[in-house]
Structure to design on (152 residues):
């Protein structure tokens, strides 16, 4: 493998790592609901697959395919970011807490469990616990449609 090829692989590893870091930071504000956290590992898995394929191409001495492969890698990463941005929830967990506090005049209390599965829509929703006049209330907040339900 040529020195230039190694630098290109390192460059693409940095890009894949940056992309994974971006997904990690973005999914954290959504409490990793509805499998959006699976986006975190996709760039690194793609890089690993790319590395194996590049190794095979270098063994066969096919430099033209090497360049096309990196163009494809970049295009796939761009598509991953676009798909993530289109499928992420419309509201973060903190935005949901603010909406509930404002609409129901309650004080939100932090809890360990921040999402639950809503079997009606087969998606996770935020679970938000709040206090109103010393009474504990549990809300669900659909981060896609802004629907709010009181459980208790």
């Amino acid at each position: 493998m040529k020195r230039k090829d190694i630098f290109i692989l390192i460059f693409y590893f940095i890009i894949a790592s940056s992309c994974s870091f971006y997904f990690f930071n973005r999914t954290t504000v959504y409490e990793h609901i509805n499998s959006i956290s699976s986006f975190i590992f996709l760039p690194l898995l793609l890089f690993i697959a790319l590395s194996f394929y590049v190794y095979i191409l270098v063994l066969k001495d096919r430099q033209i395919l090497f360049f096309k492969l990196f163009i494809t890698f970049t295009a796939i990463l761009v598509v991953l970011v676009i798909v993530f941005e289109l499928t992420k929830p419309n509201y973060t967990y903190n935005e949901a807490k603010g909406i509930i506090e404002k609409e129901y005049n309650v004080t939100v209390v932090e809890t360990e469990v921040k999402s639950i599965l809503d079997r009606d829509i087969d998606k996770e929703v935020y679970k938000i616990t709040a206090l109103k006049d010393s009474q504990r209330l549990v809300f669900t907040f659909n981060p896609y449609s802004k629907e709010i339900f009181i459980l208790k």
